[in-house]
Design goal:
This protein has about 300 residues and is an all-alpha fold. The protein has 14 helices and no strands.
Length: about 300
């Protein structure tokens, strides 16, 4: 149910989504494929060195403690408010010493977001290239390519790990409305400090950080923008990307629906991938994901997301 709530939370203005799900109007063809993506397959067992390298890079990112630290972020609005309402040498310095480590950590989080989105692009590019070189005349992504994805469980597991990290990242950010307040105080105060030269690089970077954190779902939006920027100018490649995203959603749904893992963490990873692929497709496609002609089998996907406990 959490994953369905995550999808609905992104589209609270589209109350019809749940109605479409209830009525069964979402695309649901009889040819829905029974495939199994063995995301528990050990990294390296596929024998594809590029896939292994990409998976190792992803694991280093998602297994770090940065998201746990992000979830424990404490704003310093009490100190900055005191400095603004009752300025003095003491209140100003207290506020600065409190806000500086927070902004430095925000910078670390911002870099993490760039690395996660880059990792996602690399894995998508890898799978598309594999389809092109091994698919021959049938290289175009289609519903039949779900079976092809069974050969790349390590890459698909990485996509699930990234999806899980993105969902967690954006949910943490939603609970930190005053995060931007810390950044705003830094931007207002830093240029007035005599030691500004020590922070000029951070100050220059803080403009992009502000734009990033101002977004309601910053990491999701970054991935959407970067996928669009890389592929949208070539309509054939862009169609292949959309088809691949849809196939990943369906393949992961089938995996949990028909071949539920004994390890609950693996099922949760799969469902994170389903939720993220649906939202990603909806943001990239001009027609969106929530239509009767959607290539994603949404009725099955939403049923699986809603029914999982």
């Amino acid at each position: 149910m959490f994953f369905l709530k995550f999808i609905l939370a992104k589209y609270s203005h589209k109350n019809w989504i749940y109605s479409v799900y209830i009525m069964g109007a979402c695309g649901s063809a009889p040819s829905y494929e029974d495939v199994f993506i063995d995301i528990e397959k050990p990294t390296g067992s596929s024998g594809n060195q590029t896939e292994i390298n990409l998976a190792n890079e992803t694991s280093k990112l998602v297994l770090s403690d940065i998201l746990d630290r992000f979830s424990n972020y404490q704003d310093v609005q009490a100190q900055t408010t005191a400095a603004i309402s009752n300025p003095s040498e003491t209140t100003n310095e207290n506020a600065w010493q409190a806000v500086l480590p927070n902004v430095e950590f925000q910078s670390e989080i911002y870099d993490f977001s760039k690395n996660i989105s880059a990792s996602f692009l690399n894995i998508i590019g890898f799978i598309l290239n594999e389809m092109s070189t091994k698919g021959g005349s049938n290289a175009k992504v289609s519903r039949s390519q779900c079976e092809f994805l069974e050969d790349y469980p390590v890459a698909l597991n990485s996509i699930c790990q990234i999806s899980q990290a993105i969902i967690k990242f954006d949910n943490i950010k939603m609970r930190l409305p005053k995060l931007l307040g810390d950044l705003s105080y830094f931007r207002r105060t830093a240029p007035r400090r005599p030691d500004f030269s020590n922070y000029d690089e951070m100050y220059a970077k803080s403009s992009d950080m502000t734009m990033f954190f101002a977004n309601a779902s910053p990491l999701l939006s970054r991935c959407v923008q970067e996928v669009s920027s890389k592929y949208s100018k070539d309509q054939e490649k862009f169609s292949s990307v959309l088809g691949l995203i849809a196939d990943i959603a369906d393949s992961l749904t089938a995996t949990v629906s028909y071949h539920k893992f004994a390890n609950d963490a693996a099922n949760v990873r799969c469902l994170s991938g389903v939720a993220f692929m649906i939202i990603l497709y909806d943001n990239l496609s001009t027609s969106g994901a929530f239509t009767a002609k959607s290539p994603i089998h949404l009725k099955e996907s939403l049923t699986t997301l809603k029914g999982y406990t």
